[in-house]
Amino acid sequence: MKYTDEQKERIRHCFDSFCKKVIRYQAINLYRESSRYAERNVSFEEILHDYFSECGKCDTYPGLQYHFEAFGYIFSVNDYKLGKALLQLSKKKRNVILMYYFTDYKLKDIAELLGKPQQNISYIHIRVLKNLREIMERDKDE
Question: Measuring CA to CA, how many Å separate 92 from each of 23, 61, 117?
């Protein structure tokens, strides 16, 4: 059977349309299946992390900790470099950092505790962070 050029073009168009639909629906099925797979399966790394977090915790030794007191709170710093850097700060500056990062106090609350304006405490906070960075980088180089 011989087809005219117009019929051949129509057949080619229908076949292309059919192929596009098949590919589109296969892609949709693949996405659905991969989302179902992700819901049902857990990666090996997650299992290991959960398992090891349930098994135990790292030992911390008091000799390797730095202890600081601020406003009736006692703070333990396990990081040697940070503790050493905090020791080099004045008590007022150290108290601002400890209260901000180790409690839920905001700069406004710390300002009320110290009886200073919030802007002053904010300035101290920024300046102390710069000092800490400089101290820790200097110790790193040594």
Answer: 68, 27, 14
- Can you state the angle between helices 118-141 and 107-114, rounded to 10 degrees? 110
φ and ψ at 71, to 5 degrees?
A: 55, 40
The pLDDT tens digits of the residues spanning 5-24 come to: 999 999 999 999 999 999 99
CA–CA gap between residue 74 and residue 80 (Å, rounded)? 17
Q: Which two tokens stand for residue 82?
A: 């940070």
- HSE-CB at 21 with a 13 A cutoff on CA atoms is 6
Helix (H) or strand (E) holding 18: helix 5-40
> CA 78, 84, 89, 91 torsion: positive or negative?
positive
Backbone angles phi, psi at 66, to 5 degrees: -110, 135
pLDDT tens for 57-90 read 555 565 678 888 888 888 888 888 888 888 899 9
Q: Is the pTM of this model over 0.85?
A: no
69 phi/psi in degrees, rounded to 5: -120, 130
